[in-house]
Specification:
GMP Synthetase, Chain A, domain 3; two-stranded antiparallel ribbon; alpha+beta
């Protein structure tokens, strides 16, 4: 049995136990957050999530240092990560064996959108496409069932394809207080 197949067996056990726990505890929604600060001469952006940190930056031609990916690449990476995680979860729950899994997410960015005469062009990634490559003895029907469950349950995929209500405000810092 491959390492990934062993992982899926453990993942299934853990997911079933977690679902049972959630059902018996009648869990309410949990607040999650990310904190982002911009600092320094180049506006380096630090994303802090729990005890983790990701550094994002602009390329030198946009006054950055090129220390890390831009927000749009991170967006694709987050989608890819979510698709990967949920594919593994659904394969485990459906007892579909996998030997390997690789997800690639691509999109187009039209940089003309930043110019006034091209304001009709969206500034966000367009033509987003993902490809999931698996090595598995499972049938095409089994793999299709996993994919259908992934598209139904992947939080980031659904966040992106369904309209969202997002609110914002500007908390003005005075005297160095946050």
């Amino acid at each position: 049995m491959s390492g990934l197949r062993e992982y899926l067996t453990v993942k299934r056990e853990k997911m079933l136990a977690w679902r049972k726990k959630i059902a018996t505890e009648n869990k309410q929604p949990t607040a999650i957050s990310a904190h982002v600060t911009a600092e320094g001469r180049s506006g380096v952006r630090r994303i802090r999530i729990k005890e983790h940190q990701i550094i994002l930056d602009s390329p030198p031609e946009l006054a950055g240092y090129g220390l890390g990916p831009g927000s749009q690449e991170v967006q694709l990476g987050v989608l890819g990560s979510c698709l990967t995680h949920v594919y593994l979860t659904q394969a485990a729950l459906q007892e579909v064996p996998l030997d390997s899994l690789d997800v690639k997410v691509t999109a187009d960015i039209d940089h003309r959108a930043t110019q006034e005469e091209f304001s009709h062009i969206p500034v966000w990634p367009q033509n987003v496409h993902y490809t999931i490559n698996v090595t598995s003895p499972a049938s095409d029907e089994q793999l299709a069932a996993v994919l259908a469950a992934v598209e139904r349950t992947c939080p980031i995929y659904n966040f992106l394809i369904n309209p969202q209500v997002i609110t914002g405000s500007v908390v003005r810092v005075t005297n160095g207080e946050r």
